[in-house]
Write a structure and sequence with these properties.
The protein has helices at 2-18, 25-44, 49-65, 72-86, 92-116, 124-127, and strands at residues 152-155, 162-167, 170-176, 186-193, 196-201. It is an alpha+beta fold and 202 residues long. The chain folds into two domains: 2-127, no CATH class; 146-201, Beta Barrel (OB fold (Dihydrolipoamide Acetyltransferase, E2P)), CATH 2.40.50.
Length: 202
């Protein structure tokens, strides 16, 4: 029962610390719980070196996942950490039950933190782009030419149906409404969609 309580403390404090921007009491409890777990299982002779190696390697993989694209390292690291708990002692079925209970409580804690307290993982702010480049925010992938609609321009080249027009001394790629338009003719801009400018001969 002590081992089960220690595993629950480790998982719950790990989730709590994950949603904090700095080292808190949850991190202190996590480290203390891990040390107590190692000492307890070591004293009873249940701790195997393979468990320690899997746990350390899994944590390293989880840290590397923050800097490598893809989720392979994170998944492998999480599986290694879980396997390290399963291999403690000789009774794998008992440890599987302990692990299932600990994970279930950790998931419940995660849901409560996210759903009811609106918590977000601070570490993701540094590795995930959250800025929006929408039109409402003032960003545009091209020059906004919607204000050209209704303006009168002059063809610099024949439009067959595409060509170049000039407006206020600027050269603009344009497309005629359908018919051929000769060079040096006045045209009115009737439609603008992105960089596509549609004109009609006056």
């Amino acid at each position: 029962m002590i081992i089960l309580l220690l595993m629950i403390v480790i998982f719950l404090s790990a989730v709590a610390q994950l949603y904090e921007s700095r080292f808190t009491i949850a991190g202190f409890i996590l480290i203390s719980g891990c040390l107590a777990f190692v000492m307890m299982t070591g004293m009873t002779g249940d701790l195997e070196m393979i468990s320690v190696m899997l746990f350390v390697a899994g944590v390293i993989f989880l840290v590397l996942e923050l800097f490598v694209v893809g989720a392979v390292l994170g998944i492998v690291g999480a599986l290694m950490v879980l396997a390290s708990f399963l291999l403690v002692g000789e009774d794998i079925s008992r440890m599987a039950v302990f692990l299932a209970v600990s994970l279930m409580l950790a998931v419940i804690e995660w849901v409560v933190l996210v759903k009811f307290f609106g918590k977000k993982i601070p570490l993701f702010k540094n590795v995930i782009l959250t800025d929006s480049t929408s039109k409402e925010a003032g960003y545009s992938s091209h020059d906004d030419r919607s204000h050209f609609v209704g303006r009168v321009a002059r063809t610099l080249t024949p439009l067959r149906p595409s060509g170049i027009i000039t407006l206020d001394g600027k050269r603009i790629d344009a497309v005629s409404e359908g018919a051929f338009i000769e060079k040096d003719r006045e045209v009115t801009i009737i439609f603008v969609e992105g960089t596509r400018v549609v004109v009609r001969a006056l």
